Amino acid sequence: MTPTPPARRALARARRDGWRHAVMWLVLAFALFPILFVVSAALNPLGTLSSSRLVPAAVGPDNLVRLFTDTPFAAWYLNSLLISLSNAAATVFLSALAAYVFSRFRFAGRRVGLYGLLLIQMFPQFLAVVAIYLMFSRVTELWPRIGFDTPWGLMLVYLGGALSINTWLMKGFFDTVPAELDEAARVDGATHAQVFFRIMLPLVTPVLAIVGLLVFISTINEFLLASVFLRDPEAKTVALGLYQLVADQRNTNFGMFAMGTLLLSIPVLSVFWFLQRYIVEGLTSGSVKG
């Protein structure tokens, strides 16, 4: 029986697009394999690397229980959330202030300051680890509350490395906002603070959300500087604690390690879900409504 013309067209389309679907499924399998393996290892009651499989032989909460009873994981988790949320909020606020000044004001040293921020960003932050360590050794003696083994001292270091690039990123976004809005507000008697908080910030919501999300993700996953500053087991973050689990006993503690990574992904996904609506709303809304 000869196929009808619609059937022939569908068959030809399937032959033409079949390789695209095959490539898509291969890419999807490649992307999902590590996630499924980590989930399987986290649910595996044996909790060892050698016994981990893509499809576990048994499922149980043993790794979750061991993670909270055998390690101070709750303290690590709270430390990670405190440092990441505080650093993201402080970075967004301070970078927005600096970007507003560089975008809207003309003053002596403005160009030098902008190029200075760009030049600092060219050097990785870990190159200054030795200098930072010596500096905070002295700070710890004078002001222990912002020294080693404290989240506040580590946040100061994170802020120093994050403000430069984020200030440049926000300044480019601030430059796209018409200056006539500022002038109209000042004619109506608005102060610089009112212009900044009531006019500028609502218009640059997308870049604020993006910077906050990127800073939060980079901070919660940061390992190098945290390993230098946080030496007390109770003061460690999740990244440091999980590394400590598998540094010497990778096979034995792999199940707890996998469970910890899954728990660490929860705040990252939550922050992304919370901020994505601000990104979409900021990109689709305008400053003037007719």
General description of the model:
The chain is an all-alpha fold and about 290 residues long. It is about 75% helix and about 0% strand. Helix 3 crosses helix 11, helix 9 (about 205-220) packs antiparallel against helix 12 and helix 11 runs antiparallel to helix 12 (about 255-285). It is flat, with a radius of gyration of 25 Å. It starts with a helix and ends in a 6-residue tail after the last helix. About 25% of the residues are buried. The model is unreliable at about 285-290 (pLDDT under 50). Its main location: membrane. This is Sugar ABC transporter permease. Belongs to the binding-protein-dependent transport system permease family. MalFG subfamily. It is a multi-pass membrane protein. It is found in: Cell membrane.
Name the features.
290 residues, disordered C terminus, mainly alpha
List the topology elements.
Blueprint: H1 5-43, H2 62-70, H3 73-104, H4 110-121, H5 129-142, H6 151-175, H7 179-187, H8 192-203, H9 205-220, H10 224-229, H11 238-248, H12 254-284
Global mean pLDDT: 83
Count of alpha/pi helices = 12
Element pattern in H and E: HHHHHHHHHHHH
Class computed from helices, strands and strand pairing: mainly alpha
Shape descriptor reads flat
